Amino acid sequence: MTEVLRVERLNKRFGGIVVSDNVDLTIARGEILGLIGPNGAGKTSLFNLISGVLRPDSGRIFLNGEPIDRSKLFRRARMGIARTWQHMLLFRTMTVIDNLLVAPRAYPGESILRVTFGLGAVRAADRQARDRAMAILTRMGLEHTAESMVTDLPFGQQKLIGLARTLMNDGPLLLLDEPMAGVEGAAYETIKTVVREEAASGRAVCVVEHNVSFIRDLCSRAVFMANGKILQDGTVEELISSSVLTELYFGV
Amino acid sequence: MEYLATVAILIALYVILAASYNLVIGYGGLATVAHPIFFAIGAYTAGLLAIHTDLPPVLNVLLGAVAAMAASVTLAASSLRVSGDYLLIASLGFQLGLLQLIRNLELTGGPGGLSNIPSTIVGAARTPIFLAITIGLAIASVLAIRAIVQGPYGRAITAMRDEELAFTALGRNAMTMKIVIFAIGCGIAGVAGGIYAYYFQYISPDQFEVLQSAQILTMVVLGGMGTAYGPVVGALLLLAIPQAITFLHLPPSIMAPTQGIIFTTLVLIFLFVRPAGIMGVDSSKVRS
Prior knowledge:
The structure holds two protein chains of two kinds. Helices cover 38% and strands 25% of the residues of chain A.
């Protein structure tokens, strides 16, 4: 298995609260890793540390063998770390298609020089991005919403748009923060299919999720976190039957 | 006629100021009160160069804009690194501090200001030529800003203003974009300053007080913040109304308070009736 992400002895604390306590983690190409644990376990903080929203106090992070822990948030995204957000953070005054169009790893339209002196190339990149965006929306059955304002869509569809926007980044690592929270019905199945397809295409996927059946359906391996520590790392079945998990997670 | 033309030139200059302030604060979401000082940097740079060198006026105005841009990059790059909120505080300090410096330096003429700026264009055609230049520049600024905020760059600006964290996590360099937007807006204000210095041939620190930014902001808000033509309407309205009142030949003791009352009333009416401004679209009524 080829390793995409390696996290070594990662530490982060906010005053007395430890959100990452000597975390070691690897995710391989094509793997879907489940990250489970109670609220406040440090799952989202781990995503924030990996994607670069937070700076670790100590420890290293490698993407495809390259150290990335000194790189800024936007550089890590360009290197190919794509992530979703628990609260979606969609661009709410924009249409669905525009939400996706600003999301590719390279977006020449953010440079005033290129927009002024190379508008042709910028527009060409935009057309390419539009084709990719429409293909992603079609995969999710949302191509008809392209010109709608994101805030006019129901919650489940907004959730899908958040995922679609993240998929515009075609990098090697995909971090999904509670993709299923508040989602039911058709959207649920769509997200499952899309996540499977992304892993099958060779990306490393990590999913934070409270929905155990979703984890069971998708992940071969899962990690259990509590109080910033990784307590267990194994197959999903091992984890679900483990006493540590039942005690801490289900409070039984 | 001469008087009306001067008023028109002033309106055109304020259109440039309001449009550029709108780019920074309305589109870029960058809270700043330092716009008058960048207007001043353009004016003083062009004025000093005109007095002390033989450089062509166009170049002097451009150098004024470059100086305003350079100063704005220094301010934005240092304060935005901390947080967006710091720009507001830093801009206030920058505005007050630099104006105090201008007021106390011998080079800038101190509190008395800078006079004897060469006339450049002489004769009967002077005012019409300046009128044409300022109106041309006002139109160019408004159209240039409209071009910036549309298309791929504008899309990025909107996304950044909507949700900066998500925007950055997609690989967008929000910091650079903010600095660039700020620099463009302040550079345009610098151009207006240079023209102002050449036309009036006299500039003083009192013309660039921090309260000016309240006046420009009122123009932007009345016209419609974050709209391309709002600042034009706002500047026209706010400068034309006081002039119109002068023609009523009221005694000065009534005149001055009347203007204040009309401004305040206008702002209040707009806040209640049309918070998005004249050119703005009420977001609660938008439905696609």
